[in-house]
Amino acid sequence: MIFSCNQKEELSDSLFKPLSTSHTSISFNNKITETDTLNYFNYPYLYMGGGAAIGDFDNDGLQDLFFTGNMVESKLYKNEGNLKFKDVTKPSGIKNNDQWFTGASLVDINQDGFLDIYVSVSGKQNKANKLYINNQDLTFTESASQYGLDNEGSTTQVAFFDYDNDNDLDLYIANYPPANFGSSNAFYKSKMDNLTEIDSDKLFRNEGNGTFKDVSIESGIANYGLSLGLSVADYNNDGLLDVYVSNDFSTPDYLWVNNGDGTFTNQLEDAFGHTSFYAMGCDAADFNNDGWIDFVQVDMTPNDNRRAKSNMASMNRGLFWDTVDYGFHYQYMQNSLQLNRGNKKQGVPYFSDISRISGLATTDWSWGPLLADFDNDGWKDLFITNGTKRDVNNKDYFQNLKLKINLTRQGPPINSLDIPSEPVENCAYKNNGDGTFSNIGLEWGINYKGFSNGATYGDLDNDGDLDLVVNNMDSEASIYENTTNDLNSNYVRFKLNGPEANHFGIGTRIKIYQQKNFQEVQVTLTRGFQSSVEPIAHFGLPKNQKIDSVKIYWTDFKTQTLKNLTPNQTISVNYSEANLKNSPIDNKEYTYNFINISDHVNIDYNHEENNYNDFFQEPLLPHQYSKMGPGLAVSDVNNDGLSDIFIGNATAASAKLFIQNTKGEFIEVIGPWQEQIIFEDMAATFFDADNDGDPDLYVGSGSNEFAQNSKNYRDRLYMNDGQGNYTENIKALPNLFISTGTISEADYDGDGDIDLFIGGRIMPAAYPLAASSYLLKNELIETGHLSFKDITNTYFPSLNNIGLVTDALWTDFDNDKDLDVVISKEWGPIGIYENENGKFIERTSDFELDEHLGWWYSLAQGDFDNDGDIDFIAGNLGNNYKYQASKEAPFEVYSGDYDNNRKRDIVLGYHQKGTLYPLRGRECSSEQIPAIKYKFKNYESFANASLVDVYGEDNLKSGIHYKANTFSTVLIENKGNDEWAIRDLPIETQLSSVNKILVNDYNKDGNLDIIIGGNLYASEVETTRNDASIGLYLEGKGNGAFNAIPSQKSGLYLDGDVKDMEFMQIGSDLVLVVARNNDTLKFIKVYE
Fold this sequence. Notes:
Elements: E1 16-19, H1 21-24, E2 52-55, E3 64-67, E4 75-79, E5 85-87, H2 89-92, E6 100-107, E7 116-122, E8 130-134, E9 140-142, H3 144-147, E10 155-161, E11 170-175, H4 185-193, E12 202-206, E13 212-214, H5 216-219, E14 227-233, E15 242-247, E16 254-258, E17 264-266, H6 268-271, E18 275-276, E19 282-285, E20 294-297, H7 305-310, H8 317-325, E21 331-332, E22 336-345, E23 348-353, H9 355-358, E24 366-372, E25 381-386, H10 395-408, E26 424-425, E27 427-431, E28 437-439, H11 441-444, E29 449-450, E30 452-458, E31 467-472, E32 478-482, E33 490-497, E34 509-514, E35 517-522, E36 526-527, E37 531-532, E38 537-541, E39 547-553, E40 558-565, E41 570-574, E42 579-580, E43 594-596, E44 632-635, E45 644-647, E46 656-660, E47 666-669, E48 681-687, E49 696-701, E50 716-720, E51 726-728, E52 740-746, E53 755-760, E54 774-778, H12 780-783, E55 788-790, H13 792-795, E56 804-811, E57 820-828, E58 831-836, E59 839-842, E60 854-855, E61 858-862, E62 871-875, E63 891-896, E64 905-912, E65 915-918, H14 922-928, H15 932-935, ...
Parallel strand pairs: 18-21, 33-41
Antiparallel strand pairs: 1-32, 2-3, 3-4, 4-5, 6-7, 7-8, 8-9, 10-11, 11-12, 12-13, 14-15, 15-16, 16-17, 19-20, 20-22, 22-23, 24-25, 25-27, 26-29, 27-28, 30-31, 31-32, 33-38, 34-35, 34-39, 36-37, 39-40, 40-42, 43-75, 44-45, 45-46, 46-47, 48-49, 49-50, 50-51, 52-53, 53-54, 54-55, 56-57, 57-58, ...
């Protein structure tokens, strides 16, 4: 059986033409021979494969090819034109000599203008890397020891680059030291703490005299990791080359940021919310054309339901949190497409993984990603090699093997041929230019089925498009002719003539401007997996028009500008013509709208989330509900004209009230909440409950960790004495022991006092059942005593079963001078409730909003189209999450007691190719219902089972069933005359959960703008947490449309698990205060 890369079935004219061996004369086959002495059980690195390199070794203007072999001889092929090649390996002097060759890297190391070949070596023995010096006649002399580069560290790949900006090329060596697959985190930590020279990655400095010096320790890069990928780029736009190392298993990746003084600092945790777990090959390029270099790395999770469940690598909660606790960062089993959001702080870039919304998260057992413009449309596409010769994660095979070993008390068999083998397609994705990609491997004709490892690209026939070369295991190499040029596409290519010791200009950054179009390429050769690309910068052009200008930035900060260039040519650029420039990179200067001033605000507060585990009682919860706080409220509590702030906390930690003085300093005030740390402060609001002219405080108690109807869910009302001193008024509130999700206050009945809407969220330990919500009438005016009366059953009865409420707004959407209610919830529509003489009538379906079912988290209102009525913004889960939803393929939940154990079970389901499947695999599903592992005795049978097959149609019908068909954050536009329209906000808004929305005219242009904050860190461990949001500033156009302003331009960085935001004045400044779960407060100054 062959697994498809989840793409369309229809064929069209292919962009790429596969070339036969008879045409190319390329017969290289990286054949692996498994024997009694060499097999997966005694050498688990057997299936990692070889690399490929493209370069013009004889300087005849045609790109030649080199392939590394593991158990076969590596091959060198001379390009003879017309895509015909000649095997020149034998006379070249390149021989494996029984060494296990892995990565191929090209460099002109001896400064003679000819490309040399550096080969990485691994294997069981004789692991010294090789350096083949080009003798300028297609013969090579092995000289690694003469240069001091015969490293024996089990190398995967290396990169030559100029890290110290002295115009010669230094060397980073990424090693994969031998270790048992699946070793414990304690083992890895011990290796890191007791690092040996042989296990460490290496940095060699070019001394400029034909020798290299090992500076691994003094540079700071000495580290232990199971390295499979290596990418060099200027990630922070400071003109210095940084290094990303992609590491296998739970050994953490490294982002080595170049300090400019010969040292590097690992900034991985500050720069990335998470990385891939089984991190393999990687690449770096500016795929969204914004002037910041992005990053991709691949993992090994299949997209196909059957393969995913039959080959699912184990990621239990214990292993996941053990990995985090050891300091190895958050790692998930999926590809990562990391969008560079600019520098969050000085010199440290921040990346958001957008692999889900881009459609690239799961591509099976992937090795080599390559970002390049394959169709010459001006956007970099993505090619990924796939496949492992044996499905070494096949759950059934290894479960049966374990059983056999236990029964026979013998070791594992030496024959690995019994491990299942399933060819997998390579994948190609066309860049749509909007942050998304389309799977197009079939249409482009490069969806080879087999086991592919290294791959490279270059223009083999000099026709102006990029051809592809793939090193396959147990099959001949794939050579693909790109026929883009036949479609009248356009291009421009730059061949660099660099300084003497960097002849090919490695590290040079080239930016081109063509009308409103911008692109850039940084010339680095090490890309993908164990491979090296041609040393030429290639640009596809969307139009056959002159290129306005080209800016070239050499690694020593010299620059030059070319103007009015004609497309469809290869241009030679000479370093000798460059000029010295002071600033390293020509970035635009922006007047930021927002500046982080957190370090200058003297508030000592940290939200301290307790370690309650929701999954203990409900193992199949989609995420934890005990980690949704804290609530935040701002007001002038002591009537001195200054903003003060209350911030809640989690169970076992105290909430805090800070009062501001005239110096802009904050002083903590003692309050009753300090003795009430049992409560989880989920929501908070200031309002004048007793009409005495000062703000009282209402705090909603939420979470999921206490029993239903526990008194620990009691909300609290604190009365202000006018000086900012608070005492609790227990008698004023009815006994409502619910898990509160939101609070909204207003004088809805117009009697002169403030009433309350209390939104109930989760029914504890009974997901997806919801707590009741309530309408509380303030009877102060009527009775003369402060008392809130529950009038829900009389005036708002639908609140009793409204669902998992997350937010609510009092609003007059129909302009009839009374207050209506808009309510957001999970597993349902945005609810519209009209106030008719004090009673609330649902109008959701009347306005045709009932079909938009989401996980709605937040609401905001304003006249965004300037037509005189109220519109709404509704924040949703986002489209960058593992869970995806559409009307054709909704995300679903069923709940009931399906195994008659008097406990409610949770069943999440998703659609693939028309069938509804259980979201979770056999192992997790049987944790909730043990009978499943007896009904489905192996993983393969469960993997082929639909949700109905697993749970039974009658069983499912007997319980609760909800759907979500959209996870997009939207504008709900009031068109008037009871007509409403819903449209998605810009794609930048969809990168994560939107938990809070603030509306104002920030740029004073007369149109309402939006600030959003969000994320969802409480996901179960097989689901990548929602951490791609860093906040977003959306400038309103006044017609219901918005411009998303990138953080690089706005200065807004709201990282973390943002749960609440409010504006306040600190001194004379307008400041955005941001509450984050399990984190500090963040303060952002707003420039109006």
